[in-house]
User: What shape does this take?
Amino acid sequence: MVDDSGLRALREAARLSPDNLPLRRHLAGLLLDKGYLAEAESEYRAALLLAPRDPGITAGLAEAFARQGAYGAALSALEPFLAEPGYPPRMGVIAARALLGEGDVAQAGFRYHEAVMRAPQAADPELAARLAAPAAAAAAAPAAAAAAAAPRAPQPVEGPAEPYEATDDRRSGVTFADVAGMEGVKEALRVKLLLPVRQPELFAAFGKRAGGGVLLYGPPGGGKTHLARAAAGELGASFVSVGLSDVLDMYVGQSERNLHNIFDAARRSRPCLLFFDEVDALAARRSDMRQAHNRQIVNQFLAELDGVDDRANEGVLVLAATNAPWYIDVAFRRPGRFDHLVFVPPPDLAARAAILRILCRDKPLAEMDFDAVAKATADYVGADLKGLVERAVEDKLRESIAAGRPVPLTTRDLLALTTSQRPSSVREWLATARNYVMHANDSGAWDELLPWVNRTW
Assistant: This one.
């Protein structure tokens, strides 16, 4: 029960004006600040009905959940935002608190470190102390007991960290045959990454060696990770996918050591394809960073790409993907690093039809007109098409259970779903890209995007 007369007056005003979003947002924030958590949750829920994708309201609701001990509900509310790059740092701190409440110290530490790296003002000293306590306890325990209790916990020791493993059984079973369309992208990857390994004598005649880096960029869900796995499968090389949690660490200096160990393991397993997804989180512009140790991570990454000599990374193919290439430090585009930028465009009509054929090839089908579905799915990326097929399959499963036999998927099933499912990200991404192409393209780095951003929507 709220015993504050001012808050009671605001609640009455909100009751009389239920569609007043600023009022509800303000009231919810005051309730949260004063510790009326259940009432704050109720107001945030009401505000969220008025603005379903508002990050500030979602963060407030998640904080109300977390402070009431409903950690799973907090993480569920944050999940759609945390899955996208550039989410508000406050959400990362709230997620860290919820993850710590569920006992996932390592993931909580990663979320907290990543959030504070982007916004130092979001730091929470009390939460940072709680995150450091388990690691300090593990460091004080005997080494064998610490390893048994938390084998992946970072240890603040002077010696080298445990080597990153890149075993030869990390092979990709995907090849370019499993990638529909994107012929230009596949050809660029063949020339830059695959042919130097397959025909070393020919490339050596021109002074070229196997190795180097390619940066794939484009809208989310466009198949960049799938392309990386296919490139490794074409080559028959070890494939090591490096996530942020493999690199970032709460201890100063440990992230740089992790990066070195990853590259060292790749050099021992050559030919090896290293894939860095969401690389903008590790290679952001140093001019945007306020803390020196964050800049050191970028410096270490650049040093590893260069190697200690001109043959250090021979046979190590580095592939990276990002949705936001304009946030990456320009030093990464220097020759010998990620000097080859490859735009992964949204699939065209023929590519969408080919993607649909691949997605449906192992399912019971009636006679299908994939071209008709492709025409109805303009601006869909591969992830959107996969979601469309999965929803249609779920509907067919319910029909098949009722009928007692497999009911084949039809063109009409897919077309019916296109009326309710919209493209997830292409238009928003191209709107952002247009700003950089038109106003920050003196070097010509984004000329490849011109035909896309000039399209009429």
Remarks:
- Residues 137-169 have pLDDT under 50 and may be disordered.
